[in-house]
Amino acid sequence: MITYEEAFRRVMLYDKDYGTETVPLLKSNFRILAETIHADRDFPPFNRATKDGIAINFATFENGTSTFKIEATVNAGMPQQELKDANCCIEIMTGAVLPKNADTIIMYEDLDIKDGIATLLSTPKEGQNIHQQGADKLKGAALLEKGVKITPAEIGILASVGKKKVLVAKLPKVVVISTGNELVSVSETPKPHQIRTSNVISLQAALSAEQIIAKHIHISDSKRAITKNVKKALKQNDVLLLSGGVSKGKFDFIPEVMDDLGVEKVFHKVLQRPGKPFWFGIHDKLQTLVFSFPGNPVSTFINYYAYFIPWFKSSVGVGYSDQFVKLDESVANTTGMTLFNLVKTYWKNGSLFVSILKNNGSGDLTSLSEADGFICLPHKETDYEKGELVVFVGTK
Amino acid sequence: MITYEEAFRRVMLYDKDYGTETVPLLKSNFRILAETIHADRDFPPFNRATKDGIAINFATFENGTSTFKIEATVNAGMPQQELKDANCCIEIMTGAVLPKNADTIIMYEDLDIKDGIATLLSTPKEGQNIHQQGADKLKGAALLEKGVKITPAEIGILASVGKKKVLVAKLPKVVVISTGNELVSVSETPKPHQIRTSNVISLQAALSAEQIIAKHIHISDSKRAITKNVKKALKQNDVLLLSGGVSKGKFDFIPEVMDDLGVEKVFHKVLQRPGKPFWFGIHDKLQTLVFSFPGNPVSTFINYYAYFIPWFKSSVGVGYSDQFVKLDESVANTTGMTLFNLVKTYWKNGSLFVSILKNNGSGDLTSLSEADGFICLPHKETDYEKGELVVFVGTK
């Protein structure tokens, strides 16, 4: 059996660039940008008034003038005007283009305006209240680099350079597959020995947070049904996420079926708890990946975040790094395995602490709702001390 | 002019319960649950095998027997079977119902099976490898409380109790409105004095993260057009988010129009930077709220997260609390105003630190992409020290 570190390393070897696609601007939100975005003009594109007031030629003030006749008014959205008489001023609104021959703006609060004459109430500074053309970025400058995650801030930038459509990293096509004769659909009333499908519904919801819309297939515990459906799924998808069917039972056909269908096992079973029977493989010809998670709710859930999410992030090109949090009690792990413990997080003095949740084992679905994520504790001869930093994976 | 704290307090006075609505299970992801979810049966609903192996009657082992003839095999999904002869065993798969008369499961790894006879290789513990009926939750127990945010973990629980449709908090109907003659649409090529609309597109993207699909209306700087469109928008929505049109310029009609249309000003202008000209009001009869943000990109963005988001969270019933982070350099604010500084966050020894971003002022759209959020610095006579805790608002 391999260690968690080794299993993780092997999964990450199969990260894959699924290419790019073009989507409408608002649909690109939370996707990964696949092109560099350049400024199509200076930012701002002109000398822009940042206050409402008057625009003057500063030299006139320096020469002793502090009252200015208002020659005209310019609003945002008007083409550039010209201050014709340097002894006069132009009334100007925020967002408007600074008129030719003007170089300084005095805001209303520092003015007294009467009968079309503006009188300065304080001493202006040359060039004040103007957002200079190109001050933020010059035309051609890179505004957004390839590989950034698009969020509302980036949407604003994309809009401002006219990207009605955006090139983003294509998402892998994922299907979630439940197996097990004990499972009935959410809308059915289970008989005493049955339960409703929930693991893969949870996975569908988790995938939707990555903007992946995954189909759900349920297959009963028959080798024939599994073979037929998995064969089809391998052709139609980039990734299969399965829940159940990988432990040692007589009816756990997955490893066998995968072998028959040409899916090469990368590993089966990992020195970890929960989720030991995790099976991972690849169809060499189709390049379809198979993450086959143990059927317990906690096992499926934790394996998804421990393996699939880092693999996915690496594949779309955003990268993945460990987050460390502080333990709020000492804890031991001398099991020879990596333990994944569900935890609740809380902030204290700017640090993120975790409390370990006691749960009833890998079947305890309800404990997942109480947790904010889990910590990874490798085997260690000495205790993990209170306050020690451990790796945390968030699931909320 | 009122302080930021006072402005915040006043906005929060207008939080409002918009009622509830029923949505399909997967659509409830990231919404707020509006009903208490009870266990419709015990969790788990039966004594469930957690390992593959054999089920025995422990008393037989205690009486000295360690070889058991296999009487039958039970798989997950089969109705409960019975161990007819207590000297025998039943082969059992994970997820199956524990047979009557059996009380202990021994996994394959601890067995030697030959010719239909299983021999124990180690000493079992009574009741082992069984997830006892009701061990997680008893029938009728509350699994999820009203007011929790639904995430993939909760989706799993909702699925398991058969919630094909879920009662969630209804979202306010929001419209984003841009004003300003200088603005052209994203698909247009702006003239030298024009810029493309970006603030409200950014707001649309931010609202979609809250599952709110907001329409966008652009209104030109004419009092008549603003009056006509705002009047209609007030009737059709719960919240109007405006960008631009609230500073002191001659063409900033919003406050005047709002007054004409019966929208009562709660406040106009806040001792904060950026975003000083923020205008907030309510139409008493329609109960429509108006958040009218200054038109600069950074002002609109920060005001949205500083006021709208806490208001929204409080309205849907999830509550809102401040998050504190550590400053990585000392900083002063003796401006008499609250400063909102864009920051980049990073983890160090389990603590979240922020670096203050230098930007070119409230017009610098590109700085928003570099930031992970902003910190709120109230006026303070002494410096904020390196390492001091300050309030942080995340925007990524």
Short description:
The structure is a homodimer of 396-residue chains. With 396 residues, the first copy, chain A, is an alpha/beta fold.
Structure description:
Two copies of one chain form a homodimer. The mean pLDDT of chain A is 94. Helix content of chain A is 20%, strand content 33%. Chain A contains eight helices and 29 strands. The longest helix of chain A has 20 residues, at 297-316. With 396 residues, chain A is an alpha/beta fold. In chain A, a hairpin with a 5-residue loop joins strand 21 (279-283) and strand 22. The first copy, chain A, has four domains: 2-18 and 171-316, MoaB/Mog-like domain (Molybdenum Cofactor Biosythetic Enzyme, Chain A), CATH 3.40.980; 20-43 and 135-169, Molybdopterin biosynthesis moea protein, domain 2; 48-131, Molybdopterin biosynthesis moeA protein, domain 3 (Beta Complex); 323-394, Beta Barrel (Beta-clip), CATH 2.40.340. In chain A, the strands form eight sheets. A six-stranded mixed beta sheet of chain A has the order 8-5-7-6-10-9. A six-stranded mixed beta sheet of chain A has the order 17-14-18-22-21-19, with helices on both faces. A five-stranded mixed β-barrel of chain A has the order 23-26-25-27-29. In chain A, helix 4 (199-208) runs parallel beside helix 7 and helix 5 crosses helix 6. At the A-B interface, helix 3, strand 16, helix 4, strand 23 and strand 26 of A face helix 3, strand 16, helix 4, strand 23 and strand 26 of B.
